[in-house]
Design a protein that fits this description.
Layout: H1 3-18, H2 25-77, E1 82-85, E2 89-92, E3 99-115, E4 118-136, E5 140-147, E6 155-161, E7 166-174, H3 179-182, E8 198-207, E9 211-218, E10 233-244, E11 261-273, E12 285-296, E13 299-309, E14 314-325, E15 330-339, E16 343-353, E17 359-368, E18 373-383
Antiparallel strand pairs: 1-2, 2-3, 3-4, 3-18, 4-5, 5-6, 6-7, 7-8, 8-9, 9-10, 10-11, 11-12, 12-13, 13-14, 14-15, 15-16, 16-17, 17-18
């Protein structure tokens, strides 16, 4: 019943009552109050229903907006997209055809150097970089590292898979001169033994169950040291034999207690041709390196012999490194180098693997017999 109908009924009732006399006034007053109470009750109920209807409309609109936003986000991400951490922070499509993994490293260090009683000390950020790698349309790959300091590794290249396990890479990349040069800076044993060079050119590689081969041809367009003219070039070939173990375990020097045992042997040969252009200062040269990396499930050994001949002089160097797991994340290592150019040096250090290679604290005493310099350094590494 509407408000007007109820009001009309009440009015008629009141008018009729005025002719009935004073005896009926009390009864009419009672009926009037009852009618007014009913009117108020119906009015309140109507208001509540109107409010509930308005809220329902608002909720329906909100749900519609949320579902529309979810559909938009899903279309932007692609159906079944994935994200998480797997050797780096990774995003990609569900079919694996498109992906990108992000890694980063920084190493901050305190160093004290003593040369004939002259002490020098200070803090430094030795290596900092960001690394992006992944797949493009399933069949192609990219690998880009951006250096944030003056001593980090840096390159950018694209790759594609060929038949029978062969792969081709073009751009800038690490030269496969030794096992030590190929292992990443975050996975080295000591502080500064990650000697490496990069080149710009083409690389062809193959990796089987127990044999691997890499051939590289670079000339850096005459812009890098050792390639002062456009016709100079360097070629390098490396062959590796997996005697025992798996390829992945040799991506680092550490051999934790209880880990797998294995042996990897490698031989590299590099030839440099100065070319026919003018302005070059380097001589034609060749360099070969023989190394072996061994892990024993709690200790590890690495040995490398390097020989370089430029037609006038011949120099060689020997590197040996041994490490032992001390339990609870601690590791002791010794590294010895004997070089015709730099003399003999020895490094003794401790690694504390706070969270594996992702968070590592290294303290090392390095003694250089040729220059009579003793260096004590402690470094904190974070890698993701």
């Amino acid at each position: 019943m509407s408000h007007l109908c109820l009001l009309g009924v009440a009015t008629l009732t009141l008018t009729s009552a005025s002719f009935a006399g004073s005896d009926t006034n009390a009864d009419l007053q009672t009926r009037l109050e009852a009618a007014e109470a009913r009117i108020s009750e119906l009015s309140a109920a109507t208001n509540v229903n109107w409010l509930n209807d308005a809220r329902a409309d608002e909720i329906r609109g909100l749900v519609h907006d949320v579902l529309a936003d979810a559909d938009t986000r899903a279309s932007l991400q692609g159906a079944g997209s994935t994200a998480g951490y797997n050797g780096g922070f990774t995003v990609g499509s569900a079919d694996g055809n498109w992906s990108m993994t992000t890694n980063g490293l920084f190493q901050t260090r305190w160093t004290n150097s003593d040369e004939s009683g002259d002490d020098q000390w200070g803090f430094s950020n030795n290596r900092s970089w960001l690394h992006f790698s992944g797949t493009i349309a399933g069949d192609y790959g990219f690998d880009v590292r951006h250096n944030l300091d003056s001593d980090g590794e840096e390159w950018a290249n694209g790759s594609l898979s060929l038949s029978d396990g062969w792969g081709l890479t073009m751009g800038t990349f690490k030269m496969a001169t030794s096992r030590e040069a190929l292992i990443g800076q975050q996975n080295q044993m000591g502080l500064d033994n990650g000697v490496y060079t990069t080149g710009q050119g083409i690389s062809v590689s193959n990796s089987g169950d127990d044999m691997g081969m890499t051939f590289q041809l670079v000339n850096n367009d005459g812009t890098d040291e050792g390639h002062e003219n456009d016709s100079s070039y360097t070629w390098n070939v490396r062959v590796e034999m997996l005697v025992d173990g798996t390829w992945g375990q040799f991506d680092q020097f550490r051999s934790a207690a209880g880990g797998a045992a294995g042996t990897l042997v490698g031989l590299s040969y590099m030839g440099h041709d100065e070319g026919d252009g003018t302005g070059g200062t380097s001589e034609d040269s060749n360099t070969w390196n023989l190394d072996a990396q061994m892990q024993f499930g709690g200790s590890a050994f690495y040995v490398s012999y390097n020989d370089e001949d430029d037609g006038t002089t011949s120099t060689n160097s020997t590197t040996a490194m041994y490490s032992m797991d001390l339990d609870n994340g601690w590791e002791l290592y010794v590294r010895w180098v004997d070089s015709d150019d730099d003399g003999e040096s020895t490094a003794i250090g401790l690694n504390n693997y706070l969270a594996g290679q992702n968070a590592k604290w290294t303290t090392e005493l390095h003694q250089d017999d040729d220059s009579d310099v003793d260096t004590l350094a402690t470094q904190l590494q974070f890698y993701f």
